[in-house]
Amino acid sequence: MAHRRSSVALSLACAALGIAAGVFWSPRDDADLRERLPGPVAERGFATSNTCRACHPDQYDTWHASYHRTMTQAATPSSVLASFDVVLEDRGFRWRLERRGDEFWVEMPDPIWFDNPSWFMQILDETWPDAPPQIEARVVMTTGSHHIQNYWVRRPDAEGTPLRPDDGALIAVPWAWLIDEQRWIPNQDSFLTPPSDASGRSSRWNANCSQCHSVGTEPRTSETYDRFDTRTVELGIACEACHGPAERHVGHYRSPIQRYLRYFRLARGDDPPDPTIVNPAKLAPRRSTEVCGQCHSFGEWLDQEAYRSGGIPFVPGGELDLQRRVFMYADDPADSLLHTMLDADSLALEGRFWRDGTSRIAGREYNSFLGSKHFSNSDLTCLSCHSMHAYEAPDTQLDPSLTGDQSCLSCHADFADNISEHTRHRIDSSGSDCMNCHMPHTTYGLFTAMRSHRIDSPSVRISTESGRPNACNLCHLDQTLEWTSRYLNEWYGQPLVDLGEDERSIAAAILWTLKGDAAQRTILAWHMGWGPAREASGETWMAPYLAQLLTDPYSATRQVAHGSIASLAGFSDFEYDYVAPPPVRKARADEALARWRRAGGPREVGRRLLIGDDGAIDLTALLRLLAERDQRPLTIIE
Q: What is 8-58 written as a DSSP string?
């Protein structure tokens, strides 16, 4: 305790030296780069993270080590992770990337050309070119640093062409760098999107990404979103995104008297909320959760015109509902504002939600949490599980004191003495982990199935009505929906569900893999590589189904399937490129099936796996299920 007090005193004392030493985020030694990035924001009470560092060095260091901090960065040799000096080709177009000293450049087809079908533009303007003009632009910014990194250019003025100038826009290079695999892929192949011949479409950081990938950004865009004078406080997700503008806090503690008064209050154990700054841990539960919900939600700002000019109106500690409409799904268009907002676009709706209203997009945890009774009937907040400054690992930012079942048992203490009585699984089994049953991996993003933040219980009825896989069949991949319904009835009194012949006789995982939509297929492909599911289900039967997914029309599904099949015994050296031409992918899928057969096929057999006692796949049943596949196009926008 004495050490903590002295550390607090030292931090407060050093404020006199560093409190006003805030440094704007852009590189000071690169005037050209600074000119191409958004300019600074003035007169809104922000101070930047560098100012926080003087008095809060520990918190600054943990934030600096997080992926929040590196979400958006100026493109410098220390931030760019990709290999440049390469020529990339896709769908008949070419991009030449080059490093020039400490600068990164790309020669590319003008991305504006891809925004409008040329045949349509030719009707309006005969001068619209049949092929995109080439432009050369400096890469000025990066987004992402964990799984995927994207790159942004400031498009030069296109004088002398019929293409609009798009002044001030930060436009994505339509390629993504896969960090773990150390390779480039077309950007459209980094998302779960329908197959397309399109390439090179542009997206603008100013218009959308900036609202959550930076602090205090003002888009300052024209009504047609083709002119930008964007300003930002700080690139990346920094201190003031969660704590609010800190200028008042900085000014208050510039006084030595105020610093020492604060120190003495802390020394005697008195730590009330500081009125000069927001601490989400000291807010009421709903207000605390809304600090995260400002970004981790799918919705829109109520005053779009104000946002377009002045940026996000929400300030931590305020009421999010007063400024943001968070979209929720309803089957009946008359009952759903989302249908109105998206013009009943089934592609947009199905991509974002399961049909019971549960979000299935990574990073939109707030939408799912709103559908949980814990949101309104408990004090549960994001900080009940996560910590921004004392986390176990930067990829999850889970509080190490609340890992495992501790965050759940802190409220549900009545289960703590005999967990197995509630779970009907051994206490050392993954089936006794609270989150595996109540927060299953039914959300998709970044080639991964992620935990749902709609905390509920497994339900076969919900699975059949909404398509959302239930936790039991995501672990027991070899079992049917009827098997699950029977146990949920016997153990927890859930009503038995009226099921069809396939649902009674074929494993649910196989039905979702063969008949399901793109999200179901991808989530099941991931679970076939998940350790707890393999332990519960066996794994020698999985290769044929994963091999079938290697030819899936969705590139992201193929990538996830490859990750799972490569982790099977005998497949560690299996080579496969998920963006290779279709004939090459088909040949590799055939090789995977042949390898499985050479290894002796499955040890697990039975009708529910469509595998006979001789180890052969029931091709008649498999082809029938494939013919019944849900082919509706689906896009998950991360």
A: HHHHHHTHHHHTT----SS-TT-HHHHHHS-EE--SSS---HHHHHTT-HH
Coil, strand, or helix at residue 308? helix
- The model's pLDDT over 562-621, given as tens digits with 9 standing for 90+, comes to 999 999 999 999 999 999 999 999 999 999 999 999 988 888 889 999 999 999 999 999
Phi and psi at 191, nearest 5°, equal -115, 160
- 79-130: pLDDT as tens digits: 999 999 999 998 888 999 999 999 999 999 988 777 665 444 454 555 666 7
Is 86 in contact with 185 (CB distance < 8 Å)? no
- Residue 263 CB partners (closer than 8 Å, separation 6+): 5, 8, 9, 12
- Angle at CA of residue 262, ends 260 and 266, nearest 5°: 115
Other C-beta atoms lying within 10 Å of the C-beta of residue 133: 14
Rounded Cα distance between 520 and 510, Å, is 11
Query: Cα(558)–Cα(181) distance, rounded to whole angstroms?
Result: 15
Query: Could you give phi then psi for residue 444, rounded to 5 degrees?
Result: -120, 145
Q: What are phi and psi of 379, to 5 degrees?
A: -95, 15
Close Cβ partners of 547 (under 8 Å, ≥ 6 residues apart): 565, 589, 590, 592, 593, 596
End-to-end Cα separation, the chain, in angstroms? 44
Q: Which two tokens stand for residue 586?
A: 């088909």
Residue length, the chain?
638
Please state which of the ranges 45-49, 90-94, 231-235, 486-490 shows the lowest mean pLDDT: 90-94
Q: Is residue 597 packed enough to be buried (19+ CB in 10 Å), middle (13-18) or exposed (0-12)?
A: middle
pLDDT of residue 3: 39
For the chain, give every domain's residue range.
Answer: 2-25+39-69+232-281+303-312, 86-203, 460-638
| Residue with token string 């029977």 | 486
Q: What DSSP string describes 188-235?
A: GGGSB----S------BIIIIIHHHHEES-B--B-TTS-BB--EESEE
Rounded CA separation 549/558 (Å): 6
* Per-residue model confidence as pLDDT tens digits over 373-386: 888 888 999 999 99
